Amino acid sequence: MKKQVNKEFIFGKKNYKFMFIGLAVIFFGFVLMSGGASDSDTVFNPDVFSFRRIRLAPFIVLVGLGIEIYAILLNPNK
Q: How confident is the model over 2-19, as pLDDT tens digits?
């Protein structure tokens, strides 16, 4: 006897849409964290400790991770 295999994806289209949105938000957070290096080793650049790099960017990364968790737990059949 041949068993009929149900070839169905685990996640639905809605799940993947939220996953890509979450990845884009995480990427945007890491872009906000980048930069701030000084040109010389002897000169200190205080821009490294700006609000954008210390507070805003990590918050945006955490929001992106929350979107990813939501995308995984979302029931596509509802």
A: 778 777 778 889 999 999
